[in-house]
């Protein structure tokens, strides 16, 4: 006699058939996406709902199973982590890759390795979604890339962890960072006041976080003390906009996944200037990125921009040489 909560025979066949079978419709078996058995975890699931924006997320054609049926899989420590960078496109990468049936991701930034490390790995594991053995568990916290202690801590958890870094022209990244902060703190000093110790002499203030984040080569040197370069994949924030399918193809290859997320999933939103994920007709309202995505950047003096480009250039060149790719940030 089959026990309550056990998978049906057809469900067992679907589990055995692998990822390709799981993405097909099934009237008799719906594979679970997550389990939130406790009231705390149920609250966390509710908080994962995101407001509408330009990025439309493809949902599976099968209806979502009731909470009582979400009993498959286990909570595992992540196999892959998007570690940076802030304002580079990390949220887009996570939302794009998580439509893959073999990827499950934590809904919020955990900040475990930079702010909550003393809570322990079991606390961290508890934040993860339930996954089947064949699925990859992921999370993203952009501040990890620039936090000195993080590489060692992730390595201590697992030396096999795959790392994804979304990088972007450090000058436009800094302006985007400032624009976001200004929207929350209207009385913020001007960009030039924060970016330069002495603008007339071209002396950049590297203590300002918006500037410091863009020194990618310095942060990468710290990571390479604990992980081989082959274990770190770099996504171009610029190409993520112009060729999202191409960037996601490389991410899927890096993670050892079948290329299921392809160009057929995307369309370009000309109003916002961002690629979006198409939603199937059978889906409900799409989940989207926050309204802040695509906000207009503040206008920065051209001379200040050129000074920052001159400042970053040698760091960029060293970064290109280290990763073996020219991102052409000029």
Point out poorly predicted stretches: 1-70, 284-288
Strand order of the largest sheet: 3-5-2-6-9
How big a fraction of the residues is strand? 5-15%
Q: Structural class of the secondary elements?
A: alpha/beta
Fraction of residues in helices?
Answer: 25-40%
Distance separating the two termini: 68 Å
Order of helices and strands: HHHEEHEHEEHEHHEEHHEHHEEH
CATH superfamily: P-loop containing nucleotide triphosphate hydrolases
**What is the typical, i.e. mean, pLDDT?**
82
Number of strands: 11
Give the overall shape: globular
CA radius of gyration is 21 Å
Pfam families: Sulfotransfer_1 (PF00685)
EC number: 2.8.2.-
Family: Belongs to the sulfotransferase 1 family.
Protein name: Sulfotransferase
Give an overview in words.
With 330 residues, this protein is an alpha/beta fold. The protein has a single domain (35-323), classed as Rossmann fold. The chain has 13 helices and 11 strands. The protein has helices at residues 9-17, 19-22, 39-47, 90-97, 121-126, 150-157, 170-184, 191-195, 209-212, 216-223, 237-242, 244-254, 302-323, and strands at residues 74-75, 80-84, 103-105, 130-131, 136-140, 162-167, 196-198, 203-204, 232-236, 266-269, 274-277. It has a 5-stranded parallel β-sheet. Strand 7 (196-198) and strand 8 form a beta hairpin. The longest helix is centred in the last third of the chain and has 22 residues, at 302-323. It is globular, with a radius of gyration of 21 Å. The model is unreliable at 1-70 and 284-288 (pLDDT under 50). Its EC number is 2.8.2.-. One of its GO terms (molecular function) is [heparan sulfate]-glucosamine 3-sulfotransferase activity. Belongs to the sulfotransferase 1 family.
């Amino acid at each position: 006699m089959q026990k309550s909560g056990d998978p049906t025979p057809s469900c067992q066949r679907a589990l055995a058939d692998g990822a390709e079978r799981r993405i097909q419709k099934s009237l008799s078996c719906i594979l679970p996406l997550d389990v939130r058995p406790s009231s705390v975890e149920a609250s966390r699931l509710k908080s994962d709902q995101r407001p509408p924006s330009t990025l439309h997320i493809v949902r599976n054609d099968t209806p979502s199973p009731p909470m009582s049926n979400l009993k498959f899989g286990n909570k595992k420590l992540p196999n892959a982590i998007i570690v940076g960078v802030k304002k580079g496109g990390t949220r887009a990468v996570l939302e794009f890759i998580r439509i893959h049936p073999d990827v499950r991701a934590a809904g919020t930034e955990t900040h475990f390795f930079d702010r909550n490390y003393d809570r322990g790995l079991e606390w961290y594991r508890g934040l993860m979604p339930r996954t089947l053995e064949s699925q990859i568990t992921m999370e993203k916290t952009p501040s990890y890339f620039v936090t000195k202690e993080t590489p060692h801590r992730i390595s201590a958890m697992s030396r096999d962890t795959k790392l994804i870094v979304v990088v972007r022209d450090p000058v436009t990244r800094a302006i985007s960072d400032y624009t976001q902060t200004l929207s929350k703190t209207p009385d913020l000093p001007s960009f030039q006041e924060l970016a330069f110790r002495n603008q007339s002499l071209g002396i950049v203030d590297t203590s300002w976080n918006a500037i410091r984040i863009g020194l990618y080569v310095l942060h990468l040197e710290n990571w390479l003390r604990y992980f081989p370069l082959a274990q770190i994949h770099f996504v171009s924030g610029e190409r993520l906009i112009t060729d999202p399918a191409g960037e996601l193809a490389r991410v899927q290859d890096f993670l050892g996944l079948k290329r299921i997320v392809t160009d057929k999933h995307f369309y370009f939103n000309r109003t916002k200037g961002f690629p979006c994920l198409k939603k199937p007709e059978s889906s409900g309202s799409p989940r989207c990125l926050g309204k802040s995505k695509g906000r207009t950047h503040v206008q920065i003096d051209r001379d200040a921009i050129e000074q920052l480009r001159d400042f970053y250039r040698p760091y960029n060149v060293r970064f290109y040489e280290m990763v073996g790719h020219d991102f052409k940030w000029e």
